[in-house]
Amino acid sequence: MNGRVAAANGRPEGRPSRQINVILRSQEPPVLSSAVPEKESTPAQKNVVQHSLYQEIQKELDKLVGLENIKDIVFEIYALLQITQMRQEAGLANGGQVYHMVFKGNPGTGKTTVARIIAKLFQRMGVLTKGHLIEVERADLVGEYIGHTAQKTRDLVKKALGGILFIDEAYSLARGGEKDFGKEAIDCLVKSMEDFKNQFVLILAGYSDEIDFFLQTNPGLPSRFPIQVEFPDYSVDQLIQISELMAKERDYILMPQAIMKLRQHLIQEKTESEHAFSNARYVRNTIEKTIRNQAVRLLNTYANANPGKLELMTLRTEDFKLDLKGTV
Ligand SMILES: Nc1ncnc2c1ncn2[C@@H]1O[C@H](COP(=O)(O)OP(=O)(O)OP(=O)(O)O)[C@@H](O)[C@H]1O
Ligand SMILES: [Mg+2]
């Protein structure tokens, strides 16, 4: 399972129960054996429950703009969990699946958001008991003296038991080379993955090339993270869609002129800041700053009266005070 899904119906959308039925009641003839009865009774009731569970997850995924490859991977994980359960009940080997993952992508591409949804999926499917997410970075894991790092790392793993331990900028653990305490943290994590097998899921996140470098620093690492997910940068169109969504969630609307201004700005910002451009996070900061600007404008304009409802909702061109280089 490596970032790609052979979707059963060959298309990214329309994942609900119909697709599952294709898997369960495959038209293909059974490969082997007289031991497999030709017709089995399907536990239909149970499937309905399981699918409504996925629909809940899908609702959250649907709120995210783009990320089609990631939505496919989440479905793939769901399908695997579901089938593994059925295989267990049928007395078949379950293969000891490992669900540790690597999320590769630039800042603000949705990594933390997706990790939270996956945590919920694992919890609902009974793989994780709690389904919480502990998000940490180097400073949370690495200590200042010998032995301190192992202690800090172990404590965090314990906190993450039953949920997901999400390590942002994981490559920074390998930054200082052999003598750095970051290495101790990595060794401790690798050991914890054995000691607490199936009790927590580890997600490493960071820029693509840096994560690849990180995985090479320890020969035990790559095989321990069988699920690798790429989070692409958003296009300008997607960033605009995200802006509109974020405004809508907060009960604001963007005037068409304001959208044009924002679009121009995003095109420029994306090209000029490249690596540092923080995608949807940038958009969120921009919208929040714009909302503050609108509040000031309204207070100044309506000194002796209340603005109407529509005016309270409207973000105008002049509310978008946009400078380059992230200084919104
Ligand atoms: N596809 C999307 N659709 C709508 N909103 C999104 C999408 N992706 C991210 N966001 C929003 O953008 C913000 C940043 O997302 P998130 O924190 O998940 O990114 P990240 O990749 O973890 O960033 P960082 O690397 O900086 O930690 C959040 O408010 C999130 O809800
Ligand atoms: Mg994050």
Automatic annotation (TrEMBL):
CDD domains: AAA (cd00009). Residues 97-235 form the AAA+ ATPase domain. One of its GO terms (molecular function) is ATP hydrolysis activity. SMART domains: AAA (SM00382). The lineage of its organism: Bacteria, Bacillati, Bacillota, Bacilli, Bacillales. InterPro entries: AAA+_ATPase, AAA_lid_6, ATPase_AAA_core, CbxX/CfxQ, CbxX/CfxQ_RuBisCO_ESX, P-loop_NTPase. It comes from Paenibacillus azoreducens. Keywords: ATP-binding, Nucleotide-binding. This is Stage V sporulation protein K. Belongs to the CbxX/CfxQ family. It holds the Pfam family AAA_lid_6.
